[in-house]
Specification:
mainly beta; 189 residues; UDP N-Acetylglucosamine Acyltransferase, domain 1; 34% strand
Amino acid sequence: MAMLSREAIEALGFASVGQNVQISDRASFYGASRIALGSNIRIDDFCVLSAGVGGISVGNHVHIAVYSSLIGAARITLSDFCNISSRVAIYSSNDDYSGATLTNPTVPSEYTGVTHADVFLGKHVIVGSGSVILPGVTLEEGVAVGALSLVHKRCEAFGIYAGNPAQRIKERKKDLLELERKLMQNLQK
């Protein structure tokens, strides 16, 4: 995977870019002026970040793995230490599937029933490969989502969720909070 140079990253026109940002030259960005990137981020091949009016905010120490997408008009927030595994899809907009309206972006908005709702991933959230997160979802701090899960509602802190729809199956350890503290101390030396 070839990474963009700092100059190439800045030329994309992001709202902000931190330090040590690694972006594949095969990732795609739409609405880059509404995308804010923290420090120590890696965005892999074939990822798509498409920011609508709400924008996308990516915190520090975040990895977005190959083929993942963040798409929608409402705000999408990935807090510090989030890990998005491969082929994860996060949506902040959703078509009306009832048949009462037309669908797809080629149709003028007055004929569609698209809804928008912010999506928030708290610190230390990890989302397993192939999972889908729908509009309006909050994953509180420390949530882990198993592979191939469909998340359509709020997930409470330090829970492990899996399935379609995702259900809380057990508790997640909090040891990572101490590891974060040690890492941050070492980085400040």
